[in-house]
Write a structure and sequence with these properties.
This is Alpha/beta hydrolase. The chain is α/β, with parallel strands linked by helices. The chain has a single domain, classed as 3-Layer(aba) Sandwich (Rossmann fold). It contains nine helices and ten strands.
Length: 242
């Protein structure tokens, strides 16, 4: 089937007014082929929503998986972020972290569940994020285990405070993570310093497994870039949606 066939997709833009953030937050909603509001669908919530759609090509991947790979239809919600405050919202040491995570769980989830036929249980909600987006996804799931248990982590930025928070948890057996990191991410410069993402992900994996989390973990040739993550997204989606 041609790429053009996969590119025919339905994406709706929404906005919500967040009392926690004191501003509007924009969302992108992917509706699957054959969408029917009388049915119900699993849902994938993505941090860095704009990048997941533009650089991760997640809607195109979704169309192909549904049309050709016999994956049941699902909805995708991309939550957009202002890159200038991204670290403040996604990192647990950020000054907007509490506001953002509260917006996500208390405003975005109810908005989507009130307007779209998404399934309302942890089995059918998936969180996805790259770098700090993977990190904040894990923190949201730890904060609200009644909402989330499944996480796609693409080169998660598990800095020291995040590792400490994971270590402080007694039981994380409700969590299931699909983790991937690129072997060329061992000396990556971010806005808060230079990090060895391979080592950080190995440490996070060990801490999570010690507390009972189920982990599918992969290290592959790759850099801290969407060129790497884009190609890994389909396997990550299939892992939770098959």
């Amino acid at each position: 089937m041609t790429d053009f066939h996969y590119l025919k997709r339905t994406i709706i833009k929404e906005e919500i007014e967040s009392k926690y953030l004191g501003e509007k937050r924009f969302l992108r909603i992917y509706l699957p082929p054959g969408y029917n509001e009388l049915l119900s669908y699993p849902v994938v919530y993505c941090q860095d929503g704009e990048e997941f759609f533009n650089f991760g090509r997640i809607a195109t991947h979704a169309n192909r998986l549904i049309m050709d790979e016999d994956i049941d239809p699902f909805i995708i919600v991309g939550v957009e972020v202002n890159t200038s405050v991204r670290t403040e919202e996604y990192a647990p040491f950020g000054n907007r972290f509490e506001a953002y995570t509260s917006c996500f769980t208390d405003e975005i989830i109810p908005f989507i569940e009130g307007k779209y036929p998404v399934r309302r249980n942890t089995e059918n909600r998936i969180l996805a994020g790259d770098s700090l987006g993977g990190c904040v996804s894990l923190h949201i799931a730890m904060k609200k285990p009644e909402l989330f248990s499944k996480i796609i982590s693409l080169s998660g930025a598990y800095y020291g405070l995040s590792l400490d928070i994971i270590a402080s948890q007694a039981d994380l057996s409700y969590l299931s993570l699909y983790m991937i990191v690129g072997l060329q991410e061992d000396h990556y410069t971010t806005d808060t310093g230079v990090y060895n993402f391979v080592e950080l992900n190995r440490k996070a994996k060990a801490l999570l497994e010690e507390r009972g989390a189920k982990i599918a973990y992969f290290e592959k040739d790759g850099k801290h870039l969407w060129g790497f993550w884009q190609n890994e997204l389909p396997d990550a989606l299939v892992y939770f949606l098959k």
